[in-house]
Specification:
The complex is a heterodimer of chains A (594) and B (171).
Chain A: H1 2-6, H2 11-14, H3 16-47, H4 59-91, H5 98-120, E1 141-142, H6 145-175, H7 183-214, H8 223-234, H9 236-251, H10 253-256, H11 264-277, H12 294-306, H13 308-328, H14 346-369, H15 374-377, H16 382-411, H17 418-445, H18 468-497, H19 526-552, E2 562-563, H20 567-576, H21 583-593
Parallel strand pairs in A: 1-2
Chain B: H1 5-30, E1 59-64, E2 67-75, E3 78-80, E4 84-87, E5 91-98, E6 103-107, E7 113-116, E8 122-127, E9 132-137, E10 150-156, H2 158-167
Classes of the chains: A mainly alpha (594), B alpha+beta (171).
């Protein structure tokens, strides 16, 4: 259907207003990527003790900023850009009111700026502002109020974006009674429905507890409760990062491979499963938390393991679609068709390598999800090793690769150098293979995550897959390659923006081999799926939350407040610690803190 | 709706994998007896640990034949007691709490690992074997001095353990 309509016109030819906002959102995303990459290389070289250019106390400012810019700003701005493109393109109609669209974009940008400033202010003592609480902001460590306020504003902006997509779909529905929801729009709506459910918890945590507490309106909070509300959001948010990558793998990758999607109905089933199962699993991040019963952890684990299903189904469908493409291009043989794929296209190779790494990430994720093996790797550097494969490659590399395909569509400008693009995506893969593999290995040795100096005075790590130092070198080299890859990506894009506009860049997306008419109508019943999703969340969370509140009270069982953003707070914190321990290390730390 | 035969096979294999994973964890719980940190301990007031019978004086004590309890307090930026001295070939239950922020308690290179949350007490039981000195690290970010937060868990011979406890305060 859309094939005929699209003809030779690119997205920007047909929807110039929407294309502008897609470009704005993508550029905001890439700005965060560049900042995140600079922080990333500082971090890699610091942790591995290759080059320590900042004091170790500032490492946590870097870490907080790297986390928030990469997984909130980079991912979600890309998502809203991509979704705006996908809804407009697949419904083949403009958004209902572009002013609303610009409003949510502005709200999100303001929110992220507030949060970003509150974090980066941690580098200077000139202002009493800091948010060195990391991406997870566990109370009772307390950030500056602007950190929490900015997050809330950002999330509200994303909610309005979701409403924009839903209203545009409803308008389309009135114009096209009885038609199936186009696949890309279906994916967007399912993802946003999941997002509303997931982000409600963190919004509640911030607005009811953390923000009033940081403003001094309430004295204390319940650390287990705010932590649980964080993870209520903290696991589904990883699917919020991943769903746009899935959308690209399902709807764009097969086309680039020279074929078409294998099955539209199964793609819908997968997104329904993500809506249902993404949220009632957050407690698997809390397997080692006291104050939460073992039974709740087991339920969460069961849901988590079943959440493997949509990803395993995706692996099948995507590979099948690509194989179909290769055979259309003349590929033959059991594996011979692999040579008939367009490996010279950065958008293809990038997405395929991203998918390959996602498989590896899936396997390390199965280890994380196993309740009792989790003891071995919980909070070790294994965990960042895992999520640099998932969000750091499956998502990030797919986004970068897709940019080589989508940017010409939204700007009429050809990519400056596709050869550099190809080099860049391969470099990312190599860098991440080195870094992530070494991180996993160190994790098994017990090397902790989230620390400026993982070497300790009292003991040395056992040697396993190579020694600690050797693995450090791999991490440092890998991190450096990733940094270079990011710079190449950004440089290429900036040069692309300087290219003159040309015509003839239009690409179309063919419908699936097995189309939507093969999909049962019930799959499009959004209300039904949302109702089931909410029910599952209530089943998974009502009892644990009630038990946590019952144990510790809404505001906690007697817990102090530890602001990271007030200079006097640091003094109090230093005085509160009993001196006889830690000896010299402690003394030098106090010096650095002052 | 039409589902390809290979896809059905793949689906069945996927479900089998999921069931195997769940089965292996269940086996770990009922066979070797790997228990999860749970809600077995009552909440405590993190701001008044000096009035708490167990945590006002963090210590190791014998609670049965070859059974020991270690009461440990984590704080910015260290552990008490330090080192934690426990005897070889024994069963040791750690009760760990925090008097300030969230910490981690990880005996490096082993699966003795738990979160430490103010207001809650984490209970984990381990079996010791030969005398070894282990590093104890905080694996949860807890403030600007997180990286200096470490301790030691010394597994010593029975003779040495008795020597220490009879000679002093057990630290």
């Amino acid at each position: 259907m859309s094939e005929a309509i699209e003809g030779d016109r690119t997205f920007v030819d047909k929807f110039p207003e929407e294309a502008r906002i897609v470009r704005a959102a993508l550029l905001s995303s890439f700005l965060a990527l560049v900042i995140g990459a600079v922080l990333g290389i500082i971090q890699t070289l610091h942790r591995t003790d290759v080059a320590r250019i900042i004091p170790s106390t500032d490492y946590y400012t870097v870490l907080t900023a790297h986390g928030v810019f990469m997984v909130i700003s980079f991912t979600i701005f890309f998502l809203v850009g991509l979704f705006t493109w996908a809804v407009t393109r697949s419904l083949d109609r403009p958004l209902i009111d572009i002013r609303i669209t610009w409003t949510w974009y502005a709200i999100m940008a303001v929110g992220m700026t507030m949060t970003g400033v509150s974090i980066l202010a941690g580098f200077t003592d000139a202002i009493d502002m800091s948010a060195d609480v990391l991406f997870t902001f566990y109370a009772p460590l307390q950030a500056h109020p602007m950190f929490y306020a900015g997050l809330a504003v950002f999330i509200v902006g994303s909610w309005i974006a979701g409403a924009d997509y839903f209203r545009t779909w409803l308008a389309w529905k009135r114009e096209n009674p009885g038609e199936r929801i186009p696949l890309q729009t279906f994916m967007v709506l399912m993802t946003m429905a999941m997002w509303y459910i997931a982000s409600s918890a963190v919004a509640a945590s911030v607005l009811i507890f953390l923000l009033p507490w940081s403003l001094g309106l309430i004295d204390q909070v319940n650390p287990t409760l705010t932590r649980t509300l964080f993870w209520f959001f903290g696991h589904p948010v990883v699917y919020f990062w991943l769903m746009p990558a899935y959308l690209l793998w399902y709807t764009v990758l097969p086309k680039i491979a020279g074929g078409r999607l294998f099955s539209d109905p199964l793609a819908r089933v997968v997104f329904v499963l993500f809506l249902l199962l993404s949220t009632p699993v957050g407690i698997h991040h809390q397997y080692l938390d006291p104050g939460i019963a073992e039974g709740f952890k087991f339920i969460s684990m069961t849901n988590t393991m079943f959440l493997l299903l949509p990803s395993l189904l995706t692996a099948f469908t995507v590979v099948a679609s690509v194989e179909y493409g290769a055979r259309q291009r003349g590929g033959t043989g059991l594996l011979g068709w692999l040579t008939d794929l367009p490996w010279r296209k950065p958008e293809f190779t990038g997405m395929m390598l991203a998918g390959l790494m996602f498989a590896a990430g899936g396997f390390s994720g199965m280890v994380n999800a196993g309740m009792n093996i989790n003891y071995m790797i919980h909070n070790t550097i294994w965990v960042p090793g895992h999520f640099h494969l998932t969000v750091g490659t499956a998502v990030a590399l797919t986004f970068m690769a897709a940019t080589y395909w989508i940017w010409p569509q939204i700007s009429n400008k050809p990519i400056y150098s596709r050869a550099v693009g190809l080099f860049q995506v391969v470099l990312w893969f190599i860098g991440m293979a080195l870094m992530s593999n070494a991180m996993h290995a160190q994790g098994i040795m017990g090397v902790p995550r989230r620390t400026a100096e993982p070497e300790y005075s009292g003991f040395e790590y056992a040697t396993m897959f190579g020694g600690y130092e050797e693995l450090n070198i791999q991490i440092a080299i890998g991190g450096t390659l990733l940094f270079v890859s990011t710079i190449l990506f950004i440089g290429n894009l900036v040069l692309t923006m300087g290219n003159p506009k040309v015509s003839g860049l239009a690409e179309t997306l063919p419908p699936a081999l097995s189309g939507p008419d093969d999909a049962p109508r019930v799959l499009d019943n959004l209300r039904l799926w949302v109702a089931i999703a909410v029910t599952l969340v209530v089943l998974a969370y009502a009892l644990p939350l009630a038990a946590i509140i019952n144990r510790g009270g809404l505001l906690g069982p007697g817990v102090g407040t530890y602001p990271v953003w007030l200079a006097p707070g640091l003094d109090a914190l230093a005085n509160a610690a009993t001196p006889p321990l830690a000896g010299d290390a402690w003394a030098s730390l106090v010096e650095v803190v002052r | 709706m039409h589902i390809h035969a290979y896809e059905k096979l793949w689906l069945a294999a996927s479900v089998l994998l999921i069931l195997l994973l769940l089965g292996s964890v269940t086996y770990g719980a009922v066979g070797p007896g790997v228990a999860m940190v749970s809600d077995s301990e009552q909440p405590v007031d993190a701001t008044a640990l000096d009035e708490d019978e167990r945590f006002s004086e963090p210590r190791v004590e014998q609670v049965g034949e070859n059974e020991y309890a270690a009461y440990v307090v984590a704080f910015q930026f260290g552990f008490q007691p330090d080192p934690i001295v426990i005897p070889e070939d024994s069963t040791v239950t750690f009760y760990v709490t925090s008097r300030d922020v969230i910490h981690g308690f990880e005996v490096a290179g082993t699966n003795a690992n738990t979160m430490v949350v103010p207001g809650e007490v984490s209970e984990i039981t381990v079996e010791t074997d030969e005398p070894t000195e282990y590093g104890l690290i905080c694996n949860e970010y807890c403030g600007a001095g997180h990286h200096v937060m470490e301790g030691k868990v010394n597994v010593v011979s029975q003779a040495e353990y008795e020597n220490q406890t009879s000679g002093g305060d057990g630290e």
